[in-house]
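Most newcomers find our protein records easier to grasp once they have seen one. There is nothing in a record beyond a sequence line and a structure line. Getting from the letters to the tokens is the skill we practise here. An example says more than a description, so a record of this kind follows:
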Amino acid sequence: MCHWQKPVQLHSHALAVPHQLVAALDVEIKGYYTTALRVDTKVLEVIWMGMVVMTYKINPDSEVDNVDTDAIATQISGMATEVYDVQKVEVKPLAFGLKFVQVHVTMNDGEGLADAFEGQMSEIHGVGEIEVLSMGLI
């Protein structure tokens, strides 16, 4: 392995190439790093990053009066970005007239991405406990 490479990421595909080749290809550099070019055989390896599908259950904060779960659902729906694909947001009954928000989101399988998304959701007014109902790779 050589250390003069400048790795890049193209959407969900990580690709490590020498700095000169990056300039020649005019490739956008994102920030995920890997070393995948073997100089001895001159083979360029492409590393395919998986996608993670997560389902969250978001309970209203018990210390906040009259939590509007529909407003929470609307704000979470607006959190869709290039990194987080919010597939579906549902308001479901919990018990005794209480409701919770169920969120289905797809993201790259990268370290800290799920924690960052949970942190963004927890900042929404009225959000209490966030529970992961399911997680899987696609």
